[in-house]
């Protein structure tokens, strides 16, 4: 036994001082003992004499595992021994036959040992109560007279029974649910009344001498109220005791809170609505209203707050379900009585579950939706709900500095509040729909009060008021926002004209700009506010805000504002450009650079906004050219200076120059988004000429920095933009551009290169044939040299950066080949310089079509083959466009892809994507028959079908269906044919 204890101690050691080999040896030793037929006796014996908690825990865990896993195979004697031993330990008794003076009582151990003992006893109850061990509870109750240790243990047993078996808070199997029902039914009939009476006696006896024990008893009792006879609690004895405890000023808060928890369980018990209403009336809950005002920060106040919210929720549910108008009226009167307290606790107390309060308030607001107009009392309730929302969404001033600089603590608090506020904003929108005018006036007053409040709360109150206005905007229709009658118009005017002393705060500045942007539809029809909107974005509240995060967000939001207002801003262009001069200059200087520039809000949106402004046809041509030139010329000059500097040996800080050039490219790229292809190529070609000159300058970057990937990526992005902006006039630049981009490209850059080619093909179609024929051999040569011929590895070794880049390149290649084939450009594959790569291309496409793990990629490859058959094969018997291609299709593609790959059981017809692929394979057979006639049919039926032992009658039916005009009938038949052949093979053959 000493060896066992040593082994257990070694396995529990976490100090790191035990060698791993020794720990493994110890684990093996105790695992072997676990398999012993005497394991239960060993564990009980050790529990009687070992004072080591590790040994006690291991023995109890071992008993738990044996009962749970091997109960059915245990002998009757063994079951009886374990039952008697465990029960004696739980009752604080010495085991029969154990007289040693060193006897150890488990109930004197730490809480986790007692919890484990309770778990073992509950596992016995699971298997044996009430059929085998019917007296477990009745036998235990007399032992409660032994005092606190046994009472405490009884609470742990009741809690474990609830956790392990009864509670619906945990997922249960059907078998567990059946056992729980059996146990509850037996307890109701046999012992629940005795347990409740024992709890009452214990609380009455120990309330002053051991309040912690009483709290434990009530907490355990609370768990059972939901399914026992409510009359055992709601009577002239127990309910008065609970309220006496709740209202007992001199009693500990924990005990008072536990009593409140029991009353909440009574309130929440599922009942007939009429009976529930009578119960709620009888409780006279108003007795506890005053408790929440005594110390709103206390634990008791939190418990009372939860009780009052639960009580109000049940009253609301009663009012919905009751049919009698008198009873509905009674429930609403009780609800009106408790609502002020609910509003108070929601604003002033810590609530365990804010979600439940929001759900109650949502339900309460829903009762007003059909009422018009609202009564004064209902309007008062609406204002109180709005005040609850405002209070709850306020940030704690303690985090003000953290949130402003957005350090780790600030970021965590902001994330928490964003999540926390969601439900309250849902409630706000619901209130806004029921009482829009009241909501708008409340927001207006909140904003006015926040502005006038003291500086110690000013930031949080202003932010909350603005957030209310922002969230309220979601409940307003576009039409109502445009009209902006009454309080809404006043509120928007107040928003735009008010100056906040705390505007330098990051949160206030951000929500202010977001709110202005949200109400832009109102400004669209109220031109008189345009100058106020522009001021908000162009002064220190927006783009010139000292916080760079606010400044960048302002740039993005300003771009959205410009998009929505467009032509209305033409008269203000001069003023806007003048105000943005310093911001534009700063963007392309090193003072604006930081790691924070990564992400979508990098500050470049300011150029996009300018581009949209000056790119409109409403701007006079001369002015448009002047504006664009004033922006492009200095940017291009900056690039040229940087390129000249880069050629100088030992030039200072090359990294800084690269970053600077990146910024300039991003700026020009964003600027160009405001100019349409029609404007720059047709109506105002002078604008197009400027962009061509800019393109000339930026292409020099590829020569000066041929191996700097970030710059190549930025230039590629700009070329994408110019394809859309300049249209076909970009053609003269393409040969040189594509040659330079391809020259030094790595796999990741090749992906971007192929995406650019795909864009050119999709936009210009056959117009790019000559360019494509020129570059395709180099592209194919580079890619086939990079991609491995064997499949990519699976498992951990496939997750390296290099493998992922190659997989991405391969996926993009399939798209590239598909775009070529489906845009009438398949002749590119047959050009003299491209034919060298034709065999590798066909092999890749065929292997992929037959077995790639991505079904959609397989579908694309089959579609490519279909298109090639249509393009390269004529139905006449003339000379083949590609000699041998027809034979290759019939003997390789038809056999491997159209037959063997679908015959493989991995081809899953129940998968939706696979069915789409199957449809393409069926279509391929129809196309092959149309192009090749009987030559295809004879080979497919006489050479391929026999390998799968296809019956002659099915082969003949296949021929008839293929020749028919109904492709759906042919698809259905071919699927049934494949499934039939699979059954014949019975998994013995796998076709590849």
Mean pLDDT score: 90
Overall body shape: globular
Instruction: Outline the biggest β-sheet.
Output: none
Number of strands: 0
- Percent strand equals under 5%
Please mark out the parts with pLDDT under 50 across 5 or more consecutive residues, or reply none. 987-992
Q: Tell me roughly what share of residues is in helical segments.
A: over 70%
> Structural class of the helices, strands and pairings?
mainly alpha
Radius of gyration, CA atoms, in whole angstroms: 40 Å
Number of helices: 47
Separation, N- and C-terminal Cα atoms: 62 Å
Structure commentary:
The protein is mostly helical. It is built from 47 helices and no strands. Helix 30 (573-587) runs antiparallel to helix 31 and helix 38 runs parallel beside helix 40 (801-822). The longest helix is centred in the middle third of the chain and has 27 residues, at 408-434. It is globular and about 105 Å long. Mean pLDDT is 90; it is low at 987-992.
Write a brief structural summary.
This protein is mainly alpha-helical and 992 residues long.
Keywords:
47 helices; mainly alpha; 71% helix; 992 residues; disordered C terminus
Write the layout of secondary structure elements.
Blueprint: H1 2-12, H2 20-34, H3 39-49, H4 53-70, H5 76-90, H6 111-128, H7 136-140, H8 148-166, H9 174-190, H10 192-206, H11 211-224, H12 238-246, H13 253-268, H14 273-283, H15 291-294, H16 299-321, H17 325-348, H18 354-366, H19 376-393, H20 400-405, H21 408-434, H22 436-452, H23 455-472, H24 478-483, H25 487-497, H26 506-518, H27 520-524, H28 530-538, H29 548-565, H30 573-587, H31 605-614, H32 621-647, H33 654-672, H34 677-683, H35 685-704, H36 709-726, H37 734-743, H38 747-764, H39 769-786, H40 801-822, H41 838-851, H42 855-872, H43 885-903, H44 912-932, H45 934-944, H46 952-963, H47 967-985
Helix pairs in contact: 1-2, 3-4, 4-6, 5-6, 6-8, 8-11, 10-11, 11-13, 12-13, 13-16, 14-16, 16-17, 16-18, 17-19, 18-21, 19-21, 19-22, 21-22, 22-23, 22-25, 23-26, 26-29, 29-31, 30-31, 31-33, 32-33, 32-35, 33-36, 34-35, 35-36, 36-38, 37-39, 38-40, 40-42, 41-42, 41-43, 42-43, 42-44, 43-44, 43-45, ...
């Amino acid at each position: 036994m000493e060896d066992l204890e040593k082994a257990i101690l070694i396995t529990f050691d976490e100090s790191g001082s035990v060698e791993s080999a020794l720990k493994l040896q110890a684990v093996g030793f105790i695992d072997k003992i676990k398999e012993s037929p005497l394991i239960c006796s060993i564990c009980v014996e050790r529990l009687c004499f070992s004072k080591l908690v590790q040994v006690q825990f291991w023995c109890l865990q071992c008993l738990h595992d044996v009962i749970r896993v091997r109960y059915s195979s245990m002998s009757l004697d063994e079951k009886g021994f374990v039952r008697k031993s465990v029960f004696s330990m739980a009752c604080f008794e010495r085991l029969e036959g154990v007289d040693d003076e060193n006897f150890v009582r488990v109930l004197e151990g730490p809480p986790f040992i007692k919890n484990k003992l309770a778990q073992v006893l509950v596992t016995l109850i699971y298997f044996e109560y009430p059929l085998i061990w019917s007296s477990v509870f009745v036998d235990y109750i007399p032992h409660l007279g032994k005092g606190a240790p046994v009472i405490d243990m009884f609470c742990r047993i009741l809690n474990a029974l609830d956790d392990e078996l009864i509670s619906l808070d945990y997922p249960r199997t059907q078998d567990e649910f059946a056992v729980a029902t059996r146990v509850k039914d037996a307890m109701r009939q046999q012992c629940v009344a005795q347990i409740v009476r024992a709890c009452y006696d214990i609380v009455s006896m120990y309330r002053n001498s051991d309040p912690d024990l009483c709290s434990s008893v009530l907490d355990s009792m609370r768990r059972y109220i939901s399914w026992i006879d409510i009359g055992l609690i709601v009577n002239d004895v127990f309910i008065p005791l609970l309220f006496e405890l709740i209202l007992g000023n001199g009693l500990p808060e924990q005990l008072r809170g536990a009593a409140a928890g029991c009353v909440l369980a009574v309130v929440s018990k599922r009942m007939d609505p009429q009976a529930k209403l009578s119960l709620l009336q009888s409780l006279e809950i108003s007795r506890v209203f005053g408790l929440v005002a005594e110390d709103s920060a206390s634990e008791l106040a939190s418990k009372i707050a939860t009780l009052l919210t639960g009580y109000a929720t049940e009253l609301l549910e009663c009012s919905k379900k009751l049919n009698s108008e008198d009873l509905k009226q009674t429930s609403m009167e009780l609800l009106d009585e408790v609502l002020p307290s609910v509003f108070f606790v929601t604003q002033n107390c810590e609530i365990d579950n804010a979600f439940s309060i929001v759900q109650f308030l949502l339900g309460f607001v829903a009762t007003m939706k059909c009422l018009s107009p609202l009564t004064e009392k209902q309007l008062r309730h609406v204002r109180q709900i709005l005040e609850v929302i405002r209070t709850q969404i306020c940030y704690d001033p303690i985090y003000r500095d953290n949130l402003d600089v957005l350090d780790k603590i600030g970021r965590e608090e902001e994330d928490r509040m964003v999540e926390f506020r969601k439900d309250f904003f849902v409630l706000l929108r619901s209130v806004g729909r029921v009482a829009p005018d009241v909501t708008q006036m409340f927001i207006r007053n909140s904003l006015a009060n926040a502005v006038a409040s003291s500086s110690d709360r000013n930031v949080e109150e202003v932010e909350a008021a603005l957030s209310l206005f922002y969230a309220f905007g979601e409940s307003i229709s576009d039409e109502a926002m445009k009209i902006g009658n009454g309080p809404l118009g006043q509120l928007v005017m107040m928003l735009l004209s008010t100056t906040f002393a705390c505007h330098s705060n990051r949160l206030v500045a951000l929500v202010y700009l977001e709110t202005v942007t949200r109400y832009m539809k109102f400004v669209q029809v109220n031109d008189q506010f345009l100058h106020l909107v522009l001021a908000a974005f162009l002064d220190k509240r927006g783009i010139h805000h000292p916080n760079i995060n606010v400044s960048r967000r302002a740039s993005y939001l300003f771009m959205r504002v410009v998009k929505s207002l467009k032509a209305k801003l033409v008269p203000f262009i001069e003023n806007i450009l003048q105000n943005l001069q310093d911001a534009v200059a700063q963007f392309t200087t090193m003072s604006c650079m930081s790691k924070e520039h990564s992400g979508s809000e990098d500050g470049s949106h300011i150029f996009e906004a300018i581009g949209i402004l000056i790119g409109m046809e409403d701007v006079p041509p001369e002015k448009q050219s002047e504006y664009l030139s004033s922006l492009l010329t200095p940017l291009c000059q900056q690039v040229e200076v940087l390129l000249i500097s880069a050629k100088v040996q030992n030039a200072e800080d090359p990294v800084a120059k690269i970053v600077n050039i990146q910024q300039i490219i991003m700026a020009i790229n964003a600027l160009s988004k405001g100019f349409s292809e029609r404007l720059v190529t047709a109506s105002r070609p002078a604008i197009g000429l400027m962009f061509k000159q800019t393109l000339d300058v930026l292409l020099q970057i590829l020569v000066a920095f041929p191996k700097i990937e970030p710059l190549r990526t930025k230039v590629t992005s700009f070329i994408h933009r110019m394809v859309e902006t300049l249209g076909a006039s970009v053609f003269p630049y393409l040969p040189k551009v594509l040659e330079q981009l391809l020259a030094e490209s790595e796999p990741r850059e090749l992906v971007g290169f192929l995406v650019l080619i795909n864009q050119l093909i999709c936009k210009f179609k056959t117009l790019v044939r000559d360019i494509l024929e020129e570059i395709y051999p180099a592209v194919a040569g580079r890619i086939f040299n990079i991609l491995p011929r064997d499949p990519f590895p699976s498992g951990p070794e496939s997750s390296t950066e290099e493998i992922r880049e190659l997989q991405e390149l391969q996926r993009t290649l399939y798209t590239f080949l598909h775009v070529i084939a489906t845009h009438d450009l398949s002749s590119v594959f047959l050009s003299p310089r491209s034919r060298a790569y034709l065999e590798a291309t066909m092999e890749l496409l065929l292997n992929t079509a037959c077995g790639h793990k991505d079904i959609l990629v397989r579908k694309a490859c089959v579609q490519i083959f279909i298109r090639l058959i249509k393009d390269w094969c004529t139905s006449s018997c003339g000379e083949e466009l590609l000699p041998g291609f027809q034979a290759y299709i019939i003997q390789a593609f038809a056999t491997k892809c159209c037959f063997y790959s679908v015959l493989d059981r991995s081809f899953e017809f129940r998968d939706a994507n696979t069915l789409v692929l199957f449809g393409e394979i069926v279509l391929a057979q129809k196309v092959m028959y149309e192009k090749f006639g009987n030559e295809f049919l004879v080979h497919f039926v006489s050479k391929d079908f026999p390998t799968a032992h296809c019956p002659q009658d099915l082969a003949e039916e296949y021929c008839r269906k293929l020749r028919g005009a109904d492709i759906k009938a042919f698809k259905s038949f071919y699927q049934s044919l494949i499934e039939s052949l699979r059954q014949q093979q019975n998994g013995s053959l796998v076709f590849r």
